[in-house]
């Protein structure tokens, strides 16, 4: 199973991704997680990422595509994978298409988790208290939502045209949402 998980900040992508990874036995790749790890290690990439992340801004497409290219070259990817938080822009989606065409590993589906903004802000502020993520504050959340609508939401039409888009209602319990995700796959 080769999947992309779409959804705004706080839509529950990470939570559903963990369940999908277990269920299908596939590799989970979160570009946000890669960047947080780089930050924790204090690498050059990490230092650069911190500036963007704390402003609620996206990193440049070429940096993200470079990270993804490395991940796609790892053993086991042909068995299945799940991208969470990538692609986030049309150029990233086009870049991914090109890489997957070259590797002859086409996507099976793109699942978009739909959650209203009010709920998202509430969830993210709660997550800020629990996990202490430095980009979960009211100002950054507002920016991330704006960036999502301007740059990431258009990916739904992009994948709709390819017949890959599956929209799922992201309001409910983790288990309810997981059942809905499985039902569309
Ligand atoms: P996430 O964990 O997916 O919410 O990502 C956290 C932050 O990392 C985002 O707000 C961006 O600053 C950065 N980031 C993660 N994935 C991407 C991506 N595909 N393109 C650009 N920036 C990204």
Structure description:
This protein is 58% helix and 13% strand. The protein is α/β, with parallel strands linked by helices. It has a five-stranded parallel β-sheet, with helices on both faces. The longest helix has 15 residues, at 117-131. The radius of gyration is 16 Å and the shape is globular. The model has no long low-confidence stretch (mean pLDDT 94). Adenosine monophosphate is lined by residues 9, 31-32, 35, 52-53, 56-59, 64, 85-86, 88, 92, 135, 144.
Quick tags:
185 residues, alpha/beta, 9 helices, 5 strands, 13% strand
List the helices and strands and how they pair.
Elements: E1 2-6, H1 13-24, E2 27-30, H2 31-41, H3 44-53, H4 61-72, E3 81-84, H5 90-103, E4 109-114, H6 117-131, H7 138-152, H8 154-161, E5 165-169, H9 174-184
Parallel strand pairs: 1-3, 1-4, 2-3, 4-5
Helix pairs in contact: 1-9, 2-3, 4-5, 6-7
Adenosine monophosphate is lined by residues 9, 31-32, 35, 52-53, 56-59, 64, 85-86, 88, 92, 135, 144.
